């Protein structure tokens, strides 16, 4: 019944306070509304442009309060969002197309805090402003793509295996392989079953010369394909958002076919949409040499095994149906100037598998012509008969035809681009990777930071005033013990903020609801303890015995109440989405932290205050 | 110094009035359900979706006058924010029952903006935003909530007894139902913030109920000769000071939030205030009464002799 803790407990508490304080600290440095200027080609803003920027902004009375140069770009910090917006407008008008002017919020965390990885917690869209996109992934297209792939694969592999078949017809959700006889079908079926177990289902149709095989995707495999497609789209989106340079974006799956993209602090929705919405990839196909392309264009019918394409200048060209290599294998792309022609070029890197395939197929085709097809998918909303229609448009264009002089490997270049800007954009889109399935924007929301700021300021003020009222009440009601509880309560908030910052979790309005509840729970823990101590005193216990009795008795109540709440919070976190998750995060952290501050920390202080005295006659409670 | 609340010797007969209390609560719950069924909740734009209107001005504009113009033009509750630059403005309009078609709606908005506003406003885009997010959230959120309730049921059943588990969930449903009923009655806007507040009410109600139950369990061990009703009454009385103090402090924060927090936090604060008041009432009058009516007594709580070991520690 001694009211002391071993020294290591005090040390641990001190350590927790120092660490917590340190990592909560970045949050008191506000973010500056900033304008970022970069050269879209080189990324570096030269002296000349920099001085032009100075002059233009100076003339408008919009001098930034600080200018930084991260990676050669210009980061202009302003003291208000209004000035930031106006400055961006002015600069966009004044600078040429080679320069990108983007709005951002730049953290003002000092260097030494950044060195120990101290970052402010991120504020959600509702608190900070930004854009929110809800994107719908067309999962039916996944089946189409898979069927296309199987069709190509069967054509090649059945031939390699010397298994006879007549033709393969691709349907929207299935494909049909036709055979000349049941015997051919039986042979092919054995081989197919062995090689595509668990992936495809085969059903025999027709008899004799009418034999065919209906191939459909296995249900489980389809689910897996869809899951992978969604994942790939998410990671592709993440790469694209990184290109935008947004801090703490949220890219998450929602439901079975939707992806939420939230870009806090981004106000330039048009550009965000451009980058998120457009997808580009390349395909390499052999030119069907010796075929009459103009005739095919005139009749609209391409000869068997070929497809009609058009070049930049509108000239028709026939390419082989079979794709040599798709853009999926591209791992890197950069733009520059081609050494031989001096024109703009895109340099492409392939992954290992892609390099193997590509060097094999190019080796087989040395001396022949290869075409690079640029495929772009865009989602557009157009107005038709007064109604808004959303549709995806896919454009395919031959950007380059070149003779294969030698087998191509991991690195090669594409020329035939119109401008350096186009080369740059193509490289950017290729870098961002391909989407596994097309997406469209279902919903788009913009939250203005000026509106959010006012809300935060008022909200924060009222919370602080509420806290002061609670603290006053606690001191008046529990006196010395009230003071101790107040210290624990303040510490509680510091810990929550520092943990949220360390986890880089996003704080939203529901998160604040969680914090308000935690404050209630934390105060409650202390109230339970203090009421117990008073009870013990009334029962005639000595002050020392009352303290330890109070803490011990209240402990099981606090533990039960908090563990129950924690279970609810964890379950909400696991199964909830969006705002429910945000609430659950702060609540879970808060409940654990408040157990520590309300029980351990207050006890430590009580011990330090009363534990050393030999005899206490009365407690100030 | 504030005078201490001292309920040490008090023995208010809360449970003696349990039938009145429970009947009162049942009436309130029925009324809430009825209100929810007939009037429903006034869902905010987060749930309902609405119309997005993007407009452009030749020069930088202020947002407040635009909000005022829209108000005067009959578009209340419109959200007005900058959109990329200080000349482009995005307006979000909640859907209304008598909404004309898109073309007519955009005309009306344009007329409202041209009336007395800066010249040269240009309509760029009108887009309807579906309520899909809201629906998905309602489904997912509802499921998460049900799982959470199961988690609570299991934990309380293991730590206490199944009747307490059912009782705590009943108290929780009671508090949430009345809070929602209040929103159906007043037709205050139910947005995401209010949803978060309702979640917080669940947490608060749970905390409150467990505190009372814990004391009941303890009392059964100490007051070995007393009847069930006396033991429970005593538990409620012993925790009464704590209940009142905790509710008071929580309400202090919430009142500050309500009075000073601004329009954005008003509904959030109201939901929590109602939830805390209802939760306080239920932890005093309902939680113990429900447990009693479910058949909690010493026998179900302390069935085995192994409890005797713990008994030694209790003076």
UniProtKB/TrEMBL annotation, chain A:
The chain crosses the membrane at residues 7-25, 459-478, 485-505, 511-533, 554-576, 582-606. Residues 439-607 form the Protein export membrane protein SecD/SecF C-terminal domain. It is found in: Cell inner membrane; Cell membrane. Residues 308-437 form the SecDF P1 head subdomain domain. The keyword Protein transport applies. GO terms for cellular component: plasma membrane. GO terms for molecular function: protein-transporting ATPase activity. One of its GO terms (biological process) is protein transport by the Sec complex. Keywords: Cell inner membrane, Cell membrane, Membrane, Protein transport, Translocation, Transmembrane, Transmembrane helix, Transport. It holds the Pfam family SecD_1st. It is a multi-pass membrane protein. Residues 230-288 form the Protein translocase subunit SecDF P1 domain. Residues 3-103 form the SecD export protein N-terminal TM domain. PANTHER family: PROTEIN TRANSLOCASE SUBUNIT SECD (PTHR30081:SF1), PROTEIN-EXPORT MEMBRANE PROTEIN SEC (PTHR30081). Part of the Sec protein translocase complex. Interacts with the SecYEG preprotein conducting channel. SecDF uses the proton motive force (PMF) to complete protein translocation after the ATP-dependent function of SecA. Belongs to the SecD/SecF family. SecD subfamily. This is Protein translocase subunit SecD.
Automatic annotation (TrEMBL), chain B:
It is found in: Cell inner membrane; Cell membrane. The keyword Transmembrane applies. One of its GO terms (cellular component) is plasma membrane. One of its GO terms (biological process) is intracellular protein transmembrane transport. Residues 120-295 form the Protein export membrane protein SecD/SecF C-terminal domain. Its main location: membrane. It holds the Pfam family Sec_GG. GO terms for molecular function: protein-transporting ATPase activity. Keywords: Cell inner membrane, Cell membrane, Membrane, Protein transport, Translocation, Transmembrane, Transmembrane helix, Transport. It comes from the Bacteria. It is a multi-pass membrane protein. The keyword Cell inner membrane applies. The chain crosses the membrane at residues 20-38, 141-158, 165-186, 192-213, 240-262, 268-296. PANTHER family: PROTEIN TRANSLOCASE SUBUNIT SECF, PROTEIN-EXPORT MEMBRANE PROTEIN SEC. Belongs to the SecD/SecF family. SecF subfamily. Part of the Sec protein translocase complex. Interacts with the SecYEG preprotein conducting channel. SecDF uses the proton motive force (PMF) to complete protein translocation after the ATP-dependent function of SecA. Forms a complex with SecD. Part of the essential Sec protein translocation apparatus which comprises SecA, SecYEG and auxiliary proteins SecDF-YajC and YidC. This is Protein-export membrane protein SecF. It comes from Thioalkalivibrio nitratireducens (strain DSM 14787 / UNIQEM 213 / ALEN2). The gene is secF [H].
């Amino acid at each position: 019944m001694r009211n002391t803790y071993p020294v290591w407990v005090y040390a641990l508490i001190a350590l927790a306070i120092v660490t917590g304080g340190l990592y909560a600290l970045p949050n008191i440095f506000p973010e500056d509304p900033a304008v970022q200027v970069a050269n879209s080609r080189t990324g570096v803003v030269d002296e000349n442009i920099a001085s032009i920027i100075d002059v233009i902004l100076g003339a408008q009375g919009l001098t930034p309060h600080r200018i930084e140069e991260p990676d050669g770009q210009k980061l202009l910090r302003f003291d208000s969002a209004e000035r930031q917006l106006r400055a961006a407008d002015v600069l966009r008008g004044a600078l040429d197309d080679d320069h990108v002017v983007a709005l951002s919020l730049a953290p003002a965390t000092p260097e030494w805090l950044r060195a120990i990885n101290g970052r402010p917690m991120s504020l959600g869209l509702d608190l900070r402003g930004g854009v929110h996109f809800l994107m719908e992934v067309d999962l039916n297209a996944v089946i189409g793509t898979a069927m296309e792939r199987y069709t190509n694969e069967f054509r090649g592999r059945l031939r390699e295996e010397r298994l006879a078949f007549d033709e393969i017809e691709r349907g929207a959700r299935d494909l049909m392989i036709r055979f000349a006889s049941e015997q051919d079908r039986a042979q092919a079926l054995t081989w197919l079953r062995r090689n595509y177990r668990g992936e495809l289902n085969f059903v025999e149709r027709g008899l004799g010369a009418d034999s065919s095989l209906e191939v459909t995707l296995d249900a489980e495999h389809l689910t897996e394909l869809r899951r992978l497609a969604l994942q790939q789209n998410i990671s592709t989106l993440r790469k694209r958002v990184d290109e935008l340079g947004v801090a703490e974006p949220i890219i998450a799956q929602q439901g079975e076919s939707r992806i939420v993209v939230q870009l806090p602090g981004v106000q330039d929705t048009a550009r965000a949409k451009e980058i998120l919405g457009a997808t580009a990839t390349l395909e390499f196909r052999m030119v069907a040499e010796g075929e009459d392309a103009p005739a095919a264009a005139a009749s609209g019918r391409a000869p068997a095994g070929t497809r009609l394409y058009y070049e930049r200048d509108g000239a028709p060209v026939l390419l082989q149906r079979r794709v040599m290599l798709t853009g999926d294998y591209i791992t890197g792309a950069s733009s520059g100037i081609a050494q031989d022609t001096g024109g703009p070029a895109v340099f492409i890197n392939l992954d290992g598998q892609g390099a193997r395939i590509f060097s094999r197929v190019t080796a087989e085709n040395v001396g022949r012509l290869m075409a690079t097809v640029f495929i772009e998918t865009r989602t557009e909303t157009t107005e038709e008969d007064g109604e808004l229609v959303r549709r995806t448009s896919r454009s395919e264009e031959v950007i380059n035809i070149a003779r294969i002089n030698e087998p191509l490997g991991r690195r090669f270049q594409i020329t035939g681009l119109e401008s350096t800007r186009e080369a740059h954009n193509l490289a950017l889109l290729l870098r961002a990777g391909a989407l596994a399935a097309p997406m469209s924007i279902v919903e788009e929301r913009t939250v203005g930071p000026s509106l959010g700021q006012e809300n935060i300021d008022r909200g924060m003020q009222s919370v602080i005033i509420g806290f002061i009222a609670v603290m006053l009440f606690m001191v008046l009601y529990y006196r010395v013990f009230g003071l101790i509880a107040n210290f624990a309560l303040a510490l509680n908030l510091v810990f929550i903020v520092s943990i949220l910052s360390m986890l880089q979790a996003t704080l939203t309005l529901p998160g604040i609801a969680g914090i308000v509840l935690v404050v209630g729970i934390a105060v409650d823990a202390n109230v339970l303890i203090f009421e117990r101590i008073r009870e013990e005193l009334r029962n005639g216990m000595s002050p020392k015995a009352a303290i330890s009795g109070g803490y011990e008795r209240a402990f099981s109540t606090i533990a039960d109440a908090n563990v129950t709440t924690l279970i609810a919070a964890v379950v909400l976190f696991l199964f909830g989405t969006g705002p429910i998750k945000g609430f659950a995060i702060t609540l879970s952290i808060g409940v654990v932290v408040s157990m520590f501050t309300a029980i351990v920390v207050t006890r430590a202080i009580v011990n330090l205050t009363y534990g050393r005295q030999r005899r206490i006659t009365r407690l100030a409670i | 110094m504030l005078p201490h609340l001292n309920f040490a010797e008090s023995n208010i007969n809360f449970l003696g009035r349990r039938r009145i209390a429970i009947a009162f609560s049942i009436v309130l719950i029925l009324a809430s359900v009825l209100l929810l069924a007939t009037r429903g909740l006034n869902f905010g734009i987060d749930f309902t979706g609405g119309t997005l209107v993007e407009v452009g001005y030749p020069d930088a504009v202020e947002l407040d006058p635009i909000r005022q113009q829209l108000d005067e033009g009959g578009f209340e509750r419109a959200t007005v924010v900058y959109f990329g630059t200080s000349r482009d403005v995005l307006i979000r309009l909640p859907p209304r029952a008598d909404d004309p078609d898109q073309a007519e709606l955009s005309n009306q908005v344009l007329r409202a903006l041209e009336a007395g506003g800066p010249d040269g406003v240009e309509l760029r885009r009108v887009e309807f935003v579906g309520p899909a997010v809201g629906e998905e959230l309602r489904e997912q959120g509802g499921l998460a909530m049900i799982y959470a309730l199961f988690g609570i049921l299991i934990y309380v059943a293991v730590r206490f007894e199944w009747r307490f588990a059912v009782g705590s969930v009943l108290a929780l449903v009671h508090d949430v139902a009345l809070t929602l009923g209040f929103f159906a009655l007043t037709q205050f806007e139910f947005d995401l913030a209010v949803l978060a507040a309702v979640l917080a009410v669940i947490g608060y109600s749970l905390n409150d109920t467990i505190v009372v139950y814990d004391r009941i369990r303890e009392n059964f061990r100490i007051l070995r000769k007393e009847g069930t009703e006396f033991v429970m009454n005593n538990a409620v009385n012993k925790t009464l000071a704590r209940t009142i103090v905790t509710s008071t402090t929580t309400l202090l924060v919430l009142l500050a939030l309500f009075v000073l927090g601004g329009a954005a936090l008003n509904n959030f604060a109201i939901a929590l205030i109602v939830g805390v008041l209802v939760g306080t009432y239920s932890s005093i009058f309902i939680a113990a009464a429900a447990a009693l009516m479910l058949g909690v007594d010493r026998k179900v709580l302390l069935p085995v002799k192994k409890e005797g070991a713990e008994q030694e520690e209790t003076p």
